[in-house]
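User: Could you go from structure to sequence for me? I need the amino acid at each position, not a summary. Structure tokens:
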């Protein structure tokens, strides 16, 4: 895969992945195809949604939208073979980077004990300087997840006990080897997802109410297949997903 673009093959030796993202649908613009590949390989994958995306549908009240979008995310995850889906109760649109967010994610990491984390692109612009603004929730969750991956391994950080019955999760976990950010304009690695592009499309189509609420002619199949084909061409495959990978 490595060529003029300096994108290396992704190290897929991990057995478990925790995807930590701000909203329902954040994983479904390409990364879900890679997740479908990993579950098919027998890897353990779970989703952690920081919000329920309740502010994402203009014509639907937040309480209604939150319930609907949670259901859509669970259906979308199931398309990719993921059935462990957890939601936090942070407020959509105003998620802040702070110690509370880092603590909550670190505790989830200690509980799930993943070897890799997928999270939001935390850069200011999509596509790099001059590109469209990347919203604050994405930036703040991505950076918090990156820091929490390291926090989780230090027994002297966030020492509060977990809920009763979750004692094992209170133990430090330094098994996260890499944090992977899809959608970054600075990709370092990529994975061939040929054969899983259909799962990627179907996973985004599961967010039907949200897509309808966008009020335009957005077509999930066109978007996903073109995105995956573009990265595939860069790595000599039919379809691919790229990540900016940060070793921990």
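Assistant: Here is the amino acid at each position, in order:
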């Amino acid at each position: 895969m490595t060529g003029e673009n300096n994108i290396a093959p992704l190290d897929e030796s991990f057995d478990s992945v925790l995807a930590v993202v701000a909203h329902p649908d954040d994983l479904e613009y390409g990364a879900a195809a890679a997740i479908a590949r990993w579950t098919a390989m027998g890897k353990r994958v779970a989703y952690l949604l920081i919000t329920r995306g309740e502010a994402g549908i203009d014509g639907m009240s937040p309480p209604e939208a939150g319930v609907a979008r949670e259901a859509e995310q669970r259906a979308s995850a199931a398309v990719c073979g993921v059935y462990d889906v957890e939601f936090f109760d942070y407020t959509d649109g105003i998620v802040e980077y702070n110690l509370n967010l880092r603590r909550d994610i670190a505790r989830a990491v200690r509980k799930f004990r993943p070897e890799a984390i997928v999270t939001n692109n935390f850069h200011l612009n999509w596509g790099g300087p001059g590109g469209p603004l990347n919203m604050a929730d994405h930036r703040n969750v991505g950076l918090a997840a990156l820091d929490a991956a390291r926090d989780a391994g230090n027994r002297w950080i966030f020492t509060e006990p977990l809920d009763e019955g979750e004692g094992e999760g209170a133990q430090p976990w330094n098994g996260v080897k890499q944090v992977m950010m899809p959608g970054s304009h600075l990709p370092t690695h990529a994975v061939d997802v040929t054969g899983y592009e259909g799962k990627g499309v179907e996973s985004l189509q599961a967010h039907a109410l949200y897509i309808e609420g966008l009020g335009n002619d957005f077509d999930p199949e066109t978007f996903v297949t073109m995105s995956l084909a573009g990265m595939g061409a860069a790595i000599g495959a039919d379809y691919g997903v790229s990540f900016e990978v940060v070793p921990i």
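One structural detail worth keeping in mind: Helices lie at 31-40, 62-79, 99-112, 136-151, 197-205, 208-213, 220-235.
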